[in-house]
Every structure is written in structure tokens, then in C-alpha cells.
Task: structure prediction
Amino acid sequence: MSFAIAERESLAAAVETAGWAVTPPVVPQLTLDVLVDMLSPLARGGGGGAGRAGVRNLFETAPAVRALASSSAVRAVAEAVLGPHCFAVRALLFDKTAEANWKVVWHQDLTIAVREPARVPGYGPWSEKAGIPHVQPPIELLERMLAVRVHLDDCGMGNGPVRVLDGSHRVGRLSPEAIDQWRAHRAPVECLVERGGILACRPLLLHASAPAASPAHRRVIHFEFAAEELPPPLEWHARIA
Result:
């Protein structure tokens, strides 16, 4: 799909102001069917270190996910916010089912995946997830990144959708006390997405999700996009343009 200029500007404006935007279905249904068939064995095996709730490191295990990251539909969303030189740096699968009907507390996404750990000013603390080094980068880098979440299933009110607090991406890294203040003074918004639609959001946007009231598959391929290289010797763990 190619977005009209007005659609791209509207999406970018929503992400700038609220921290998130949702598209109508833009990924072809046949593509979604292929992805579901390919990812089902990985999800059943809890591959990549994410357990029954999902799978990490999809670029290494699922070639079709690499193709999706480079597709016109996904890139149209990422480029509307980050510009034409952006690239995908991480891909995960989340699948909320009756057997893995989890909740997520209010938080910001604060880490990135890199090839090798290195001492660089402003980067830390370090951790490891599924064998991959992760680090908290300077807040300015996170402010310039974008999550692009492709929904392989409809996600309505009963499916435990992502809930967000509008505008919380614009105030930097938040302490637990500051998160509580945001929750007390800002009503959450549910991000409802149709199959084939995309939720685009800033990593620093406060978000959470409740368990699904009617558990069924809620499969989401979560991409993270950046538009700049890391300071040497650090390198992104993946780089899919």
C-alpha cells in the first residue's frame, strides 16, 4: 500500500501529538495467512526466549518477517514518522491466548538490542534477553524511534488491547511516581486494531494491557524502527531496510 500524502501527514501528526496512531487494514490478507502459518510452530514452541506469550529474534528465525519489515505497507508507516532512511532493528511476536492470557503493567519501552556490549557514555544499564545484549540508550535516541505493530488478528475490546496515555511520550523517562501521576490525571485509551491494521507508537509512550476478557489469538508482530546508527563500537542487533 502507498499512503497518500495527506494520510502520511495525518499519521505523523497523531504520533507527534498523542504518541500513537492506528491504520485501517493495510497488509494483504494472503500475507497475513502466510505469516500465521509460518509463525504458529514457533509460537507453540515458545521459541526465542519469550515463552508461550511470544517469540523474540524473529529476523533470525522467520524470513517472511524480514520481508514484512521491508514491505510497502510497513515502510509507509515507518517513513511517515522517521523519514525514508529508517530501518527495522528488532522484531518480536506477541500472542495473547487462553493459555497465555497475560497482563502488562504501565511502562515505557526503554531498551534496544545490540550486537555486542561495549562501554559507551550514556548507554546503560545492560541486560540480556534470549541471548541478545540489551541496553538502555540515551533518552534522545528513544524519542526518535518508532514501534510498528502489525496485527495478524482483530483486536477489539475483549482481546486485551494495548492501552495508552496520550502525550506521555513527550516527557522523557518516567519514575514509578510519575507514572502513577499520569495514571491519576489522564484517562487511558484502548488501541483497537483490525486484522491487517497497524498500530504505530513511540517507545516512550506509557502503555499497558489487561488480560483478554474473551481469550483468543491476538497475534501481533512488533517491529522497532530507527533512523540513525549507534555510536561505535555499538551496532544494532539487526538492520532491515
